[in-house]
Amino acid sequence: MKNEYRVAIIGGGIVGCSVAYHLAKFGESDVVVFEKDYLSSGSTGRCAGGIRQQWSSPHNVILAMRSVSLFEKLSRETDIDIEYKQGGYLVLSYDDQEAVQFEKNVQMQRELGLDVQIFTPRQIKERFPYVNVHEVRLATFCQTDGHANPHLANFAYARAARKLGVDILTHTEVVAVEVLHSGFKLFTNKGAVRSQILINAAGPYSREVAKMVGMDLPTESYRHQIMVTEAVKNFFDPMAISFSGNFYMRQTKHGHFIMGQGDIDEKPGLNNNVTYKFEKEMARKMSKIFPFLSKLRIVRHWSGHYNMSPDAQPIIGESPKIEGFYYAVGFSGHGFMLAPAVGEAIAQLILLGKTIEVDISELNINRFEKGIVREKNVV
Ligand SMILES: Cc1cc2nc3c(=O)[nH]c(=O)nc-3n(C[C@H](O)[C@H](O)[C@H](O)COP(=O)(O)OP(=O)(O)OC[C@H]3O[C@@H](n4cnc5c(N)ncnc54)[C@H](O)[C@@H]3O)c2cc1C
Fold first, then answer.
1. Whether pTM exceeds 0.90
2. Chain segment 304-322, per-residue pLDDT in tens
3. CATH says 85-145+220-306 is which class?
């Protein structure tokens, strides 16, 4: 660890590592990433790895579309196979009102250039015979959506950033920050360091890290659980999701089924335990919708956190009050898939004072002064 860096990043999840990689790729490698645990130990390593462009908010669609074009070349660019598969995302609706909203979403998504289809229950059955379409109103499907292995994607960015000269320090916790006249002084469990720029990519801890510089970020973390079945031969290409049905599921490269749901009874907090209630509810629900699952054993179950923002869209940009303090937080349930585009955009904002591929100006914190328009397509 040096005494001083141009840029310090708190958080070695996919967001922090993507920002670090893009900074270095664009020529700024005087960068350090502090990770209090191991890389991908936070939400990233606990997520489902879904990569979806079908959103109700145009910002999320635009960021996800840009991310997909970056995911498509990530394995090649970093020389790590991230198990990226564009098997599509099948979004099932069980609710009449939601079905109407889906049609509006598809119109907006198509206007933004996304190739999305609408399927009737019969068309779903023809294409995906293993799905029980009982009570399904309609589905939307985008073939270029898909999934990847979150650990490998996190490591891919980290390794590529290291190769370009970035210092990535694991088991190094930032415990306090002093805002200087120019720049910051960070106190870690391994000593102090100065930086001109500081980036909060602390995922579930984003609010605590913002407090270190005296800023109140409106993010809250909620536990989400996931369970995994034993492996079977691969046959299930898409990721399936339903907001009204409250589930998502996919098959991994190694044949396991990985699935999760939201829980409205969950209180904000940093609870990492798992519950039998989740296993029971998931197993019952999923074996009705995907009957083949009833024959498979559950082999793993863990929990992680959604770092929620008030409108379920990320809060990204530079602080309007503290010069040089940036954040990429509040990703809710979709920070893995947005990390490539957000990393690229934050790096451009720092180095060029503007972004090139995507405009993130409306995703900064001051948007909440105008009211809240919540992203609807979330589990
Ligand atoms: C069950 C579940 C399923 C999900 N499924 C999906 C999905 O399918 N697709 C998708 O796109 N998203 C999904 N998500 C959301 C996704 O996991 C997150 O949005 C994303 O991983 C956020 O990445 P991050 O780098 O911001 O945070 P993290 O991966 O949490 O990284 C932040 C890191 O900061 C470190 N840190 C915090 N404070 C400090 C400190 N003071 N000093 C040093 N280090 C610190 C933490 O240890 C952590 O490793 C899911 C989340 C969960 C929990």
1. yes
2. 999 999 999 999 999 999 9
3. alpha beta
